[in-house]
Amino acid sequence: MKSRISHSLFSLIVILGLNHSGAKGQVILNCESGNRAVEQGSCWAFGSTSYTNTAAQVITGNWSTRSNQLTNPAPTACWIKTPWMQMGSGNITFNARFESTAGTTRGIELYYIAYDPTDPPYYEAEPVQFYTYNWPKPWSTTVAQQFAVPIPAEIANSSDPFKIRVSYVGTGGTARINSDDFVFPGAYYSDPTNGCLPLAGSVDTDGDGVADTDDDYPQDPYRAYNTFYPSAVSYGTVAFEDNWPAKGDYDLNDVVVDYRIKHVANAQNQLVESVVQLIMKASGASFRNGFGFSLDGIASNRVVSCSGHDVAANSIFNLTSNGLEQGQTNATVIAFDNFYRLMPYPGSGVGINTTPGAPSVASHDLTITLTYMVNGVPASGGAVSSNQLPFTSFNFFIVAKQTRGREIHLPGYQPTNLVDASYFGQDDDDTQPSVGKYYKTVNNLPWGINVLQGFDYPVELAPVNQAYLHFIEWAESGGTNYPDWYGSGAGYRDNSKIY
Amino acid sequence: MKRHVTILSLILIVLFTSCRKDETATPDQPATPTNISDLKAPSGFSWSTSQSVTIEVTGLKSNIPFVRTLSFIAADGTIVFQQTHNINDDLTAVISIPSEVSQLRMKFGQLSTDLPVVNGKLTYSFIPVDNGE
């Protein structure tokens, strides 16, 4: 009797609010949560009835219900009430037993309660009594009485919502009743997120278990949710210095790329794909640099395919047939191999889109799609759940000077398998993998920065702190002071130093 | 004689005044560097304008499944987290949101409630307070 209800069947019924006559399941109260509030959270209600785990009072399992002393013949004094249900057919069953024999009369009464849309806040019509039991003496304190009460014909298999109230009544004495193992044939039909009112009907066109109102793909059973980072209408910016392992000029414009990531997940919270939109903004560099990202914690064989990247056939990068980079443990995408190939040098100034007065070059967009699942079938390495790939696991990096091992990541992020680790500790780099320190100097300065809110990068040779006047205070405070240092408020910027 | 007394008094006033501790003086503090190369950042600083927030949802753990879409939404309407969720299940998830965000709205079915970010966490329990009846 204490078995759990079939999850899948109930989920279907609850989500769709369907009426499956004869297959409505059961709603069970066995008290084994040990906490009456848990059941209240599922829309059960209790009047002067508590839970007990005192051995002499428990009927089965570890917990049972315990009435107050039954000295009141009114059915509203002591009771248990089900959530709203669509009743099935057959018997309501439960067990009950006396705690003591001190009393004059004791009884149990069952009522059904219809839904009354005109009677807030509980919307309950007048209860209708359909069963009465007056306990004959002698009362047993050791053997539980088994009850089996037929559901009244007028509510059996109805699509309308009803509640059942079990009332304990009595006169004289202190005897209480313990009860347990309640089984009510029918389907749960309450909405605990809506004041325990009856479920509102909802439509699920594709049958994936996600109501159309919540489904970003209501006609596609293999897709349900979009989640964006940083948002559906904005881009973050990653900006790098490329002179690693030596410090650069900190104008943070050697490679500047805006990004937006969209996760598409199915109703089982498995990722179907990630769409990474990149806008190549600037490269204030003489080096020819590439750009990519790894998916930290996601093995390459968990990605079906990668498309939308732009890597020349004769580049320094070797890709597999599914579009990822070869030789990597974590799935790694090379978005582009050479900034200058996709956004040519304009002919004057230093770099691309960093020298005021030099011709500007139109930004170049890339839309990279990582597919984890096709028509519900994951890659050979298994499905990727949403929680396994948070957006912070997108580990952006540049590859400087067309040297594959010269891989520069955002501070704190680990390199890929193909980094040349001999660079660690050279010049200004103070990377110490043993203590989890990556891509920082002795003073913890980075070679890259990630601005979730988007970033107007400095002009060539202007250190970022000269363009953004509170940058140093922000950094020295570990991000506490001036968290909005990138803003455009008075005193925040020197616009002459911003491209 | 009167003139000598006046001069002596002035000298004493000056002496005592000059010896009194200046309690308004600002203690020595390191100046904010103007050169970025002189900057020293805390070792754990991520150099990101985002914050990592852990969502901790306590499930109801009843025997009645109730499955809906669970969403966390920023003030600008951005859905920062969304998945199918059973009200009975616990959930722990880490999200990254702009550092200035101090609360998110949680939606689950018809439920909608604002939750503050406290010490890098957003917490919610589906177990209600016992109504005591």
What do these coordinates show?
The complex is a heterodimer of chains A (499) and B (133). By secondary structure, chain A is mainly beta. Chain A is 6% helix and 31% strand. Chain A has five helices and 27 strands. Chain B is mainly beta and 133 residues long. Chain B has a domain of 75 residues: Immunoglobulin-like, CATH 2.60.40. Chain B is elongated, with a radius of gyration of 30 Å. At the A-B interface, helix 1, helix 2, strand 2, strand 15 and strand 27 of A face strand 2, strand 3 and strand 4 of B.
Keywords:
heterodimer; A: 499 residues; mainly beta; seven-stranded antiparallel beta sheet; 27 strands; 6% helix; elongated; disordered N terminus; B: 133 residues; Immunoglobulin-like; four-stranded antiparallel beta sheet; three-stranded mixed beta sheet
Structure at a glance:
The complex is a heterodimer of chains A (499) and B (133). With 499 residues, chain A is mostly beta strands.
The radius of gyration over CA of chain A amounts to 33 Å
- What portion of the residues of chain B fall into strands of 2 or more residues? 35-45%
Helix content of chain A: under 10%
The number of E-state strands of chain B comes to 7
Q: Specify the overall morphology of chain B.
A: elongated
Distance between the termini of chain A: 71 Å
Describe the secondary-structure layout.
The complex is a heterodimer of chains A (499) and B (133).
Chain A: H1 7-16, E1 26-29, H2 36-41, E2 45-47, E3 49-52, E4 64-67, E5 79-81, E6 85-87, E7 91-98, E8 105-114, E9 128-134, E10 145-150, E11 162-171, E12 177-188, E13 190-191, E14 197-198, E15 225-229, E16 236-240, E17 255-265, E18 271-282, E19 290-299, E20 305-307, E21 330-336, H3 339-342, E22 364-371, E23 373-374, E24 377-378, E25 394-399, E26 407-409, E27 448-451, H4 464-467, H5 471-476
Chain B: H1 2-19, E1 50-58, E2 67-73, E3 79-86, E4 91-98, E5 103-108, E6 111-116, E7 121-125
Parallel strand pairs in B: 1-7
Antiparallel strand pairs in B: 1-4, 2-3, 2-5, 5-6
